[in-house]
């Protein structure tokens, strides 16, 4: 999207084993090791192994100490884009209709990821400050227990809770004040619904958590944990 050149480090998050193999090639003398490699790789298509030349005549061009940096550069590019050239082209064409690609030149890859994916760190103070309640108040014991539980969670568990209620595990740029629902801006909402024997429910289109009036902190924790970890599915309203 940014037209930036791919580097070997980009492979690490996608295929750590492949990355380690390339690092070994980079750090060792492949000629002394007797390793025979060519500018050609094999890949599987519908169960059939096919060769792919990384450059014209690559099946006859041996990788040496002199040209292994070129090999690593080309094979990284291929590994990141193999089989998805047409899909990537279509995605960029569609994206360009919404946001002109030339606008992206003002951002680096970290800034672009932040805009598209949101913030990874969940600020509980910001979350609580921009939440609203229905049939509860901020002083209701169930609400106080809820935030006590949220603060006791590790980052992964908070992300799962956010995913359960809002359908996303990340916070938008600008924090919870910028949280969006199906009808535009929609704050995180906790609503009093049902009996204490019920499990919590979520409405991801409205960023709403239906939280029954549990009678103790332990009961709230047990029910929320079960809802977050064990339930899946969706409905319409």
From TrEMBL:
Domain HECT: 1-237
InterPro entries (UniProt xref): E3_ubiq-protein_ligase, HECT_dom, Hect_E3_ubiquitin_ligase
EC number(s) per entry: 2.3.2.26
Pathways involved: Protein modification; protein ubiquitination
GO molecular function per UniProt: ubiquitin protein ligase activity
Catalytic activity: S-ubiquitinyl-[E2 ubiquitin-conjugating enzyme]-L-cysteine + [acceptor protein]-L-lysine = [E2 ubiquitin-conjugating enzyme]-L-cysteine + N(6)-ubiquitinyl-[acceptor protein]-L-lysine
Top-level lineage group: Eukaryota
Pfam families noted in UniProt: HECT (PF00632)
Entry keyword set: Acyltransferase, Repeat, Transferase, Ubl conjugation pathway
Any one Gene Ontology cellular component term annotated for this protein: cytoplasm
Single GO BP term: regulation of signal transduction
Name of protein: HECT-type E3 ubiquitin transferase
Species per Swiss-Prot/TrEMBL record: Lepeophtheirus salmonis
